Amino acid sequence: MTVTVGIGPVSFDDVVAVARADAPVVLADDAVTAIEQSRRHIEALAADPTPVYGVSTGFGALATRHIPLDMRTALQRSLIRSHAAGSGAEVEREVVRAMMLLRLSTLASGRTGVRRETAQAYANLLSAGLTPVVYEYGSLGCSGDLAPLAHVALAVMGEGHVRDRDGALHPSAGALVSHGLEPVVFAEKEGLALINGTDGMLGQLILALADLDNLFRVADIAAAMSVEGQLGTDRVFAEDLQQLRPHPGQAASAANIRALLADSAIVASHQTPDCTYVQDAYSLRCAPQVAGAGRDTAAHARAVAERELASVIDNPVVTPDGRVESNGNFHGAPVAYVLDFLAIAVADLASISERRTDRFLDVARNHGLNAFLAHDPGVDSGHMIAQYTQAGIVSELKRLAAPASADSIPSSAMQEDHVSMGWSAARKLRRAIDGLGRVLAVEVLTAARGIDMRSPLTPSPATGAVVALLRRHVAGPGPDRYLAPELTAAVALVQSGAVVAAAEGAAGPLQ
């Protein structure tokens, strides 16, 4: 798959393909035309004695200085070098590639005033699989993701470092030469156009939503397995009951659980007139309400991301009639808010998953299963400490749910006196989503063990397919074994989409 970048927005699928599948990138003809038209406006202004911000002035609090023509190449070079001030761990390759594509998409709009060769350099770097080294800290989520984007621009200049497809580290200058590419000397306005965007936080939002598409389905699978393994009822998931509260995410989650529990001999075994059990605990009964609210949160976040994809984020911006105007569109608040909102939903979804897992382990609540699902309780501890692992992660996710966007800190001598902290919101959401996948994996692994211990009763075809998938990687109930590798195997199956694929193979597509 090749991703073509034109004057319109790239799609979610485009971002994921470039970020995670190394899709090559080409500039469309309409983008080239738009870029060249807007560049002509910048070149006309560059020769004008009247100062124009970003073209013939300094930046931020230094915008009052007019920069003479013979110093403007140095101005752009100095901007990138000084702003490439990141620190900390390296940012993940997929995040950097998503950020680069999104910045290229804005350049292709023809509203930033860069030259064609500068935009082409970004496409070339992506297609060559060369990823600039970007560091964890350096963005306040306002005036763009400044330091992260500056590290990318630094590599385009032939400075700093990049990693190749195999992850090997190289000086940018040598890597460009070895791939038949040349460094770019930035002209007026270009340095600013390359760093003044919300691309880092937006790229991470899009990747998070792709991950959550999988994990929401896993959450429904895990909930169904827990309902089944704990002899819960499926009657509460009936469509007419769900329609009494018509949230779309709730309806989708309940429909999934109904499909996953269809034809379960375990469920049928206790749906008899002599069953006196009245209702299940909230963590079982309210699974669609919690997972559904998470889905609806993600739907809102997706709508924000789609609007941001269709936006032109730069300051100043070249308008269609040729004006170069300052603006505040670089402020990351819209993206920051939904990144934080998603972190709340992720923490709560993990929390209810951990509660369902804990019920399996308690003889007072697990309806006849061994304590901690141990083979020989007392000699064996079963899944006791797997729940501790879950609890530790859930506690961390609750801390990560505290909003980054509620904070602000002034910068640039108080010129930039209110910022979004959207990059920080994105970084903690990535950590939270990783934690959610691990928590759900423990529930799936524990529920599968509980279902196996209900033998000779058999699970539904869908949950049975998930148990069978796990058993190809993890042995069934028995004396205690080294548990960490089994958790690692379950996490891989959850995060890769294999658990969803196994369930859908029996139940059909899940919502």
Descriptive report:
The protein is 56% helix and 5% strand. It is built from 20 helices and 9 strands. The chain has a 3-stranded antiparallel β-sheet with strand order 4-6-7. A two-stranded parallel ribbon has the order 1-2. The longest helix has 31 residues, at 199-229.
Short description:
The chain is mainly alpha-helical and 511 residues long.
CATH class of the largest domain: Mainly Alpha
Question: Spans of 5+ residues with little confidence (pLDDT < 50)?
Answer: none
The oligomerization state is single chain
CATH topology of the largest domain: Fumarase C, Chain A, domain 2
Largest sheet: 3 strands, antiparallel
By DSSP (H or I, 4+ residues per run), the number of helices equals: 20
Strand content: under 5%
What structural class results from the helix and strand content?
mainly alpha
| CATH architecture descriptor of the largest domain | Up-down Bundle
Whole-number count of domains: 2
Helical fraction:
55-70%
- What overall geometry do the principal axes of the alpha carbons give? elongated
Count the strands? 9
Fourth-tier CATH superfamily name of the largest domain: Fumarase/aspartase (Central domain)
What number is the mean pLDDT? 94
| Helix-strand topology string | EHEHHEHHEEHEEHHHHHHHHEEHHHHHH
Biggest sheet strand order reads 4-6-7
- Over all CA atoms, what is the radius of gyration? 26 Å
